[in-house]
Amino acid sequence: MVEAVARANPLVPELGKIIKIVDETPDVKTFHITTEKGKPFTPLPGQLAMLSILDVGEAMFSITSQGPEHLELAIKKVGMLTEALHEAEVGQTVGIRGPYGNGFPLEMLVGKDLLFIGGGIGLAPVRSLINYCAEHREQFGHMWIIYGARSPADLCFKEDLFQNWPRVPNCRVDVTVDKGDENWTGPEGFVPAFVEKLNPSPKGKIAVTCGPPIMIKFVLQSLEKLGFQDDQIITTLEMRMKCGIGKCGRCNLGSRYVCLDGPVFTLAQLKQLPNEY
Amino acid sequence: MNTLTEKMRALARELLEKGEVKYIIGWEKGSLWYQSPPVFIDRPEDAGRLIWDEFCVNNLAKYLLDDKYLEGRVGLFVKGCDARGINRLLQDRQVERDKFYLMGIVCPGVKDPRQAAGLSIEQREEVPLAAKCLYCAHPEPVVYDVLLNEAGEAYRPKRPAGERFEDVAALEAMSPDERYEFWARQYQRCIRCYACRNVCPACNCRECIFDRSQSGWVGKRMAGSENAFYGLTRAWHVAGRCIECGECERVCPMGIPIMTLNKKIIKELNELFGEYEAGVSLEAEPPLGRYRTDDPDFS
Amino acid sequence: MLKIAKEKMPELLNAWAKIGKLYVPQDQDGVSNFLPWDGKGKLTLGQGNSVLPPKDLFFPRTETMYRYQRSGGALSLEEVVENEKQILVGIRSCDARSIALLDDVFLTKGYVDEFYRRRRENTLIVALACNVAQDTCFCTSFGIDPGRAEGVDIQVWEVDGSYILEAGTEKGRELLGQAPALLMEAGEGGLPEAPACNLKVDLAGVTEKLQQMFEHPFWAQICRKCLGCGLCTYLCPTCHCFDIQSENRGDSGIKFRCWDSCMFSEYTRMAGGHNPRPSKKERVRNRFLHKLQYFPERYGKFGCVGCGRCLSYCPVNMDITRIIGGIKEVDLNG
Ligand SMILES: Cc1cc2nc3c(=O)[nH]c(=O)nc-3n(C[C@H](O)[C@H](O)[C@H](O)COP(=O)(O)OP(=O)(O)OC[C@H]3O[C@@H](n4cnc5c(N)ncnc54)[C@H](O)[C@@H]3O)c2cc1C
Ligand code: SF4
Ligand code: SF4
Ligand code: SF4
Ligand code: SF4
Ligand code: SF4
Ligand code: FES
After folding, report:
1. Is residue C257 part of a domain?
2. What is the pLDDT of residue A4?
3. Strand partners, B102
4. How far is the CA of B142 from the centre of ligand 2 (A)?
5. Residue C119 Cα, ligand 2 centroid: separation in angstroms?
6. Which helix (H) or strand (E) segment is B195 a member of?
7. Secondary structure E strands in A64-182
8. What's the domain range around C237?
9. What's the pTM?
10. Are C227 and C284 contained in the same domain?
11. Per the CB 3.0–4.6 Å rule, which of A96, A265, B4, C237 could disulfide with B52?
């Protein structure tokens, strides 16, 4: 990554287009984005993109999946830019730059059993890794996906959860919601308690978790209870970001920049850094 | 050590020992002989750090906003202008009077450390009085619980007989184009550090619009027009409430004559609504802060 | 080495100003800053540091990055490429070091910041040695020599009513060659002795100590007088934080970056209002840790150059030299 980006200006986006929009939940949509020359760039699982509507704003998002010609970003409506994106239609011009961040440490995951724990929109970064592992199935051991959302309507990536991933060989998927509705027959309850009930053994496993900060906090406690060590747990962080390339200063965690040296950290690494996120 | 310093220390020690205040805000000696920055004293044994000298320039009133919900009282030293700052906060309903204990100092005038830079301590007398003191009309604190010194002749600062609105008059003498050029040049320099706002006791909004860049009111671009918009907006927001402590102009690193702007507004308000001095009395309402049905403009 | 009489300096500046936009410290309304030289300004060379550091010339307080335009349904984007030649005259050794630190930030660690690189490569730097240290200078504590700046194109000394000039780079030699009529051989005669700083800090072990002080009550104590303005970071020659924003007019607009400061509450505030640095304790701590721990950890150098600007101008005199002293005195077991 080091010198490859040296001359193209990393702060200036390329223009691209939204070619498909998938409604995931009432406040999450997945956007498929491409440029004239095809896929803007080829990210590693867990890497990030800066997406902009030029006259509105620019923000960092995980690249949740990719095809040969496009990138996919799942975006929750929270503010100015994300609202404008939710109003956008297919064909809308956007700016995109990246890929940023370290991505998941694949070398550490190869040959291991993998436990993926996601909550809400937090499944977005983890999904890129799940899809990668499914495509390179022989390189990884057992896959176990545990996911939860507030309500059945808030479940993201339903097609993956209920159709695609259960069909991946040697892969188990468990889904919970905080509170079900009349049609929901699956489990109810918060993700951390759900994880403890499912009681995955830490042996030979790596856990990858992402979700709202409060969920992460309790999932980490649950994993600890189950006997997972700090170097068996991987999570991704969010900080406010502007440049994405370790210059503007704002996403620092100690001497690391989350946009550049993160967003993926093992719990062991995080414990070496100031508790300021 | 001067007697006022001794008195300050003794009183601070006593108040802390008796538990009458949780902590005390005063001034201490900085690294250089001409620096006397604010200090917070929590323990009686630290009272010896407090000092009084001519460089105790900082207005300490604003710190009361940092601890509005403290259980117990804060002890605070106040000069004349600081005391008006206290009234500012009280009148704006930002703080409650029983939450602090005021130790008043009749102020002989203070000096701006930046004007002492480069001089040796032997030249101490040569450092001029701070700009804000040249037109100060209230060296005696207008509000206090205890007064530490007397307003005797000896304490009367030797102020040059400066016209309060001298700088304003100079500006008014300019043509509109010259005036525009003058202010454009000044605000071209502004770096939007917001030191002037953050030091100001009249700038006490819980959330300032300039901290909400998304609001779209003002761009974050540091360009003359945006900067001037900031400066003007702030001037309007403190209009009729500015206590003339001069802190904003003192702290501005870029030498922008903020007080000239403030005084121009004060002068206009005086002419329109009658003489008024903000922060001198709690009873007198700020000219732009009152609502009357007999107002000539009310219809 | 070459020489020019002090009163001839404006002529040399005039000659150089034909080669590129020349910035030199000048007085405007009583404030000394690097301003474009038009042959008429009031030079403040030799009168201590400018209020604003020269970083403004490489990393302007506001800089347009690109423009966009909508016409019909199509949107176009154009990067703003600034390639103007600049000559920066009269920077001090501390500020010269700060530029080396900004180079580390903007030019290394995976990405090159092209906006910075262009301005940096298009700028010739002429440094002026200090004859006297100001009360607030402590550059020597960082191993900086006030008598000779690092990595500059030309070094200048003021001696007995003259300036002595020495090229440090090929580009500097070329610049000296541009005004042969004004410069004469300096001949023998020594250079002035570099001044000693009265203010000193002992930096030994500070970074290591800070690595164990993140949770220490020290920060809650020292932060109390801070007003949370951005003055110290905007005046600091090594602070490099910026924000990116856009400004729109009808169908067109610009994306610009502008200085930002970790002392502002908005700086780290996130969606839903969560702020990892909610109060001035965290913000003051971040500033000092960045200068004294994080910068050394990341780039192997202190992020302060001892220029003294924050000491002179902080409204409440938050004094980094005292804070370093305070860090040394902290009892980690107490
Ligand atoms: C590494 C990383 C990965 C992310 N991945 C995703 C993702 O896959 N899907 C997704 O929907 N969101 C993701 N986010 C969050 C996303 O960046 C924010 O939701 C987005 O910036 C909000 O922009 P906005 O203009 O709509 O909101 P704004 O109108 O800018 O602001 C709404 C609120 O969000 C705050 N905010 C601004 N920028 C950020 C930021 N970068 N992070 C957090 N809060 C911010 C503002 O202070 C404000 O309080 C990610 C963030 C990071 C840092
Ligand atoms: S505007 Fe200036 S002079 Fe007026 S109260 Fe505020 S700081 Fe004091
Ligand atoms: S203190 Fe001066 S430079 Fe800073 S924002 Fe105020 S006017 Fe601008
Ligand atoms: S340290 Fe001083 S200059 Fe910096 S933010 Fe605090 S008060 Fe402002
Ligand atoms: S921290 Fe202060 S002394 Fe150090 S380089 Fe920055 S402004 Fe200068
Ligand atoms: S994080 Fe703060 S101290 Fe560090 S460079 Fe940015 S503004 Fe300066
Ligand atoms: S987003 Fe700019 S440093 Fe990380």
Report:
1. no
2. 40
3. B76
4. 17
5. 39
6. helix B195-199
7. 65-66, 71-76, 93-100, 113-119, 143-149, 171-177
8. 206-241+262-329
9. 0.93
10. yes
11. B4
